[in-house]
Design goal:
A middle domain of Talin 1; globular; 13 helices; Four Helix Bundle (Hemerythrin (Met), subunit A); 358 residues
């Protein structure tokens, strides 16, 4: 009996330092995710949304074809930047309906389009005030609404003087988007806010009690993000056969930004994986998982990199459509690597999907 107790005590003494080291490593991964990717990415979003606001304001002050082109270019840069950080679908972005206010999509019933068209038709003056707009329907105050204003039916009139209301509404949307980006950026930079809770799990932490729970939240960025990209974004417009394709169900189809957004989503995931050093938590005999993840991220980004222009034209091109299909295959491979291989090697289990119910 004495020997068995001694053996158990020795085993515990060996396990405790190992567990402490594992927790420290996990804490560092979360800290690196925050400081190496999330905060810089939101910082970039603040910059591009500010530039977008100035660009739309310049268009309204001096309508012209050049200023309209500049506003459209600023919008496209914003959607790509947002695509990189929108994979972080927890924390401050989920407060005050910010995620839906930034991008209300998918809009399967056309709710957003109807509300935006109604505002343009009725010339609702309250919709031209960024502060008041933030209290309105989420469907008429984000990137989807601004895309229609800048690229939808009648948008070319913004180059002249006959679309003053439309431009004022667009300026309010751009201002609202900038406010959301600024608020979320500030929340992530608050050392006593959500970032601290995620980075410092413990018994008194209301969100993350253990290092495993904190690491699982990082894992779910990939599990849920890949599901979003594959099943909702690509699956929304790419049919099993070409005859079943629905190009107008693609996100950002009006601004020709569909594939750039998909590439941005994967670029964001890759940047987060690199910055966090998530793969460093894997044991030596499982390092191949991290290497395979890097390989597949490159494959996915390469698949969409050469697809530009209207998404309907891309779908009509057999080679480009095949690349989109391959992109879906790559996301499935990544889902298996993260959701099965990496999670198993680290003893993590992804839980609730933020996409459930979509």
């Amino acid at each position: 009996m004495a020997r068995s107790v001694l053996a158990a005590s020795l085993a515990l003494l060996v396990a405790l330092p190992a567990a402490a080291h594992a927790n420290q490593a996990s804490d560092k991964v979360i800290a690196d995710a925050i400081d190496g990717f999330i905060r810089p990415a939101y910082g970039r979003l603040v910059e591009v949304t500010a530039a977008l606001g100035k660009s739309v304001e310049a268009l309204c002050a001096a309508p012209s074809a050049d200023n309209l082109a500049a506003a459209r270019a600023a919008f496209s840069k914003t959607t790509v930047t947002w695509s990189e950080i929108e994979i972080i679908r927890f924390g401050p972005i989920t407060e005050h309906n910010r995620l839906e206010r930034m991008l209300f999509w998918p809009d399967r019933k056309g709710t957003g389009l109807k509300q935006v068209q109604a505002a343009l038709s009725d010339k609702d003056e309250t919709a031209t005030d960024a502060a008041k707009l933030g209290d309105k329907s989420v469907a008429m105050q984000g990137l989807g609404a601004l895309e229609f204003v800048l690229f939808g039916t009648g948008a070319d009139e913004l180059a002249g003087t006959s679309a003053a209301y439309r431009c004022a509404y667009g300026k309010a949307i751009a201002g609202n988007i900038g406010t959301i980006a600024t608020d979320v950026d500030a929340a992530w930079r608050d050392d006593k806010g959500f970032a601290s809770q995620w980075q410092h799990p413990g018994p008194q932490n209301p969100l993350y009690r253990t290092a495993s729970e904190a690491a699982t939240a990082l894992l779910e960025v990939y599990v849920n993000g890949l599901e979003l990209v594959r099943d909702v974004r690509v699956g929304g417009f790419l049919g099993k056969e070409a005859s079943a394709d629905k190009p107008k169900q693609a996100l950002y189809w009006r601004s020709e930004g569909t594939t750039a957004s998909l590439g941005g989503n994967l670029a964001g995931m890759k940047a987060l994986f690199d910055a966090s050093h998530f793969g460093s938590l894997l044991p030596d005999d499982s390092q191949w998982i991290a290497q395979s993840i890097d390989f597949e991220f490159a494959n996915g980004q390469n698949a969409v990199a050469g697809i530009t222009g209207p998404i309907d034209a891309a779908l009509a091109d057999a080679d480009k459509r095949a690349k989109l299909t391959y992109f879906g295959v790559v996301t499935s491979s990544l889902s298996e690597l993260f959701g099965t291989r990496l999670s198993s090697a680290l003893g993590l289990t992804a839980g609730f999907s933020s996409l459930d119910g979509d």
